[in-house]
Design brief:
Chain lengths: ~240, ~400
């Protein structure tokens, strides 16, 4: 999948992307109006903005969960509009990891099984190596002693850690996190954030993190601000950059 | 375990109560279907066996030469219908020997037995009984009506002046094995009287037959009934019961003889059995429909409850087709478990039923024949029903928009 062209291409390239809901009905509304945005590999970006500004919508578009209504979206150099549903599904499974706001784990599966799930979808039945890797990831997020817990027996912060481990299971290029610390106390929020930052540094995984917390945004490489479906500000955060 | 299986099983386990409900529903449906099928098949097989136990499946007779009204006007009313047809002058089937050879070679027939039969009287002391004389070749006749298995006493042996008689006739005349009686016939204008020794007493299961049946040797009957070298009818047994009418029609067209199958002589019985079969089929269809609707409604609810999970799985890269399969599998799994439980239930119900519902004499109503095919067929039917039930919910699950599902 990664030929010369895609290796050189930016991770995400949005050009003039719009999103309309309720097309053809009386309540047709445009939520995103011409978004131009480039995300580079390994970049840790915060997406901020008031409620209803379109942050989740933008994340869903980048995550290939829904198609843009207009404009062009290139992921790893490939024009997504030209890909079939099956290709989009596969690309999504392998290149993008998700962390949702309400730590959407699968309640019927243990922590380890949740982390194994992306591999099960993309690669088939779990192998002992993948099991070890999943346990390793859970240990890395500090849950080495909760491997076989079902989600309902984990705290909110612990569930979100599992979600991060799951998002990283297939070593994706990009992790999309929609308010991952939204309903956690400050202490847990800091932990989760630090964890993502650590993975970003160690593995070079790019993150796009929606947050309402200015403290956390200040610790990202770059802050993109969305207001009323438009990018109102996009500034590097040199203070936060490592090296 | 592959993705679809793992998720389907976990989803079912997670919705424990719902899953138990639909498995229970499927089990009861399967149990009812199997129980009714086993019951009706058993009773029908029993009825047919009883009716056909003392009848040939097909009877070949000479072409009738006189119209029925004339024949019915003749004095023959004191014997039973089977003999009544022979109240006119006895005739032989033309060329019956080559015909028997030909019939012997037909694989669809399992028994071919030429016979000479006619009316007569059995006399012992002061008692005289109107009877029907059947001249048969025991090994051949046994394949049509197994007299050997119906013996109350003695053996099925009819040499020269030996006779096997019905149980009631033996009582009426006070005959036991080894006793003698006189047989009188009056065919062809002359009266013939011979003395016979009783070698066997049979119970044909029907009082009328027990009261009037006298079996003697084929050749002896030819002499007594003034039909030297002849055969008045040929009895046939078929391998497949319900092919009898088709085979009979074929034979009639080919030979020009009168050929009647049991299906024609027992039309009313057959009509009753058919009505019964239609009734049970209707019940089966409706029970299956209820089970399908039950499973479907629970799965539809489950799809709505699992919107988030479906959204997450789609976000992880599970295609629509795989989500669809997860739900189809749930339908199939419910059906398989349900039918396994249902089969056990049906078996228990049938055993209990057979124990409770008995004939007047205490014997079971029918013998329980648990054909493995009934189980295989029901299991396959249940899986088809399960998939059918899961189809609409699976479509819905697959059509779910992951972006929307995740926003909730
Ligand atoms: N399926 C939809 N149909 C119609 N309108 C929608 C749909 N989804 C989202 N919207 C609208 O799009 C706008 C942006 O929603 P979005 O969820 O992207 O905002 P957000 O920036 O994530 O807000 P928050 O910070 O509250 O999560 C909102 O006005 C919302 O009502
Ligand atoms: Mg949002």
């Amino acid at each position: 999948m990664r030929n010369e062209a895609t290796a050189a291409a930016p991770l995400v390239e949005l050009a003039g992307v719009t999103k309309r809901y309720g097309t053809g009905t009386e309540v047709e509304t445009e939520v995103l109006h011409g978004i131009d945005l480039v995300l580079r590999r390994g970049e840790f970006t915060a997406l901020i903005g008031p409620s209803g500004s379109g942050k989740s919508t933008l994340l869903n578009l980048i995550g290939l969960l829904e198609p843009p209504s207009g404009g062009s979206y290139r992921l790893l150099g490939r024009e997504t509009a030209k890909l079939s549903e099956a290709e989009l599904t596969r690309l999504r499974g392998r290149t993008i990891g998700f962390v949702f706001q309400f730590h959407h784990l699968l309640p019927a599966f243990t922590a380890t099984e949740n982390v194994l799930m992306p591999g099960l979808v993309a690669l088939g039945p779990a192998t002992p190596e993948r099991r070890d890797a999943a346990r390793g990831l859970l240990a890395a997020v500090g849950l080495g002693d909760r491997l076989d817990y079902p989600p309902r027996k984990l705290s909110g912060g612990q569930q979100q850690r599992v979600a991060i481990a799951r998002a990283l299971a297939l070593s994706p290029e990009l992790v999309l996190a929609d308010e991952p610390t939204g309903n956690l106390d400050t202490h847990s929020a800091d932990d989760i954030f630090a964890l993502m930052r650590a993975f970003n540094r160690e593995r070079g995984t790019a993150f796009l993190v929606v947050t309402h917390d200015p403290r956390l945004a200040a610790r990202c490489d770059r802050v993109v601000e969305l207001v009323d479906g438009r990018i109102a500000a996009d500034r590097p955060n040199d203070a936060a950059r490592p090296r | 375990m592959p993705f679809e299986w793992l998720v389907a099983v976990r989803f079912l386990r997670e919705g424990r109560f719902q899953s138990l409900l639909i498995i229970g529903g499927a089990a009861i449906g399967v149990a009812v279907v199997i129980f009714i099928t086993a019951l009706v098949n058993g009773l029908q097989a029993n009825t047919i066996r009883r009716v056909l136990g003392t009848q040939a499946h097909i009877v070949v007779r000479p072409t009738e030469e006189v119209a029925r009204p004339q024949r019915e006007a003749e004095p023959g009313g004191l014997v039973m219908p089977r003999v009544e047809a022979r109240a006119q002058r006895l005739r032989s089937i033309d060329q019956w020997q080559p015909l028997v050879a030909e019939l012997d070679a037909m694989p669809a027939l399992t028994g071919v037995s030429p016979m000479v039969s006619g009316p007569g009287f059995a006399i012992r002391g002061d008692a005289t009984k109107a009877i029907a004389v059947f001249g048969v070749d025991p090994p051949r006749y046994d394949r049509i009506v197994s007299l050997s298995e119906r013996l109350v006493q003695g053996a099925f042996r009819v040499q020269a002046s030996e006779a096997v008689i019905g149980k009631e006739l033996a009582q009426d005349l006070g005959l036991a094995i080894g006793d003698r009686f006189r047989l009188v016939t009056a065919e062809g204008g002359t009266t013939v009287a011979e003395t016979f020794t009783v070698t066997g007493i049979v119970d044909l299961g029907v009082r009328d037959l027990n009261r009037r049946s006298v079996y003697i040797a084929f050749r002896t009957a030819q002499a007594m009934l003034a039909l030297p070298g002849g055969a008045s009818q040929i009895d046939l047994k078929v391998a497949a019961l319900f092919d009898a009418e088709r085979i009979a029609q074929g034979l009639e067209a080919r030979t020009g003889l009168t050929v009647e199958s049991w299906m024609r002589t027992n039309e009313q019985l057959l009509a009753a059995l058919r009505a019964q079969t239609i009734t049970t089929s209707t019940i089966r269809v409706f029970v299956s429909a209820i089970v399908v609707l039950g499973i479907a409604s629970v799965l539809v609810v489950s799809v709505v409850q699992k919107r988030r999970e479906i959204g997450i799985l789609r976000a992880m890269g599970a295609s629509r087709a795989r989500i669809q399969r997860v739900f189809l599998l749930q339908g199939a799994i419910v059906a398989v478990i349900g039918s396994a439980v249902g089969m056990a239930l049906a078996l228990a119900m049938t055993v209990v039923f057979l124990d409770v519902a008995r004939n007047a004499d205490g014997t079971p109503l029918f013998e329980l024949h648990v054909s493995p095919w009934l189980f295989v067929g029901t299991a396959l039917g249940a899986i088809v029903c399960g998939l059918l039930a899961a189809y609409a919910p699976a479509q819905r699950a697959a059509a779910l928009d992951p972006a929307q599902a995740i926003r909730i």
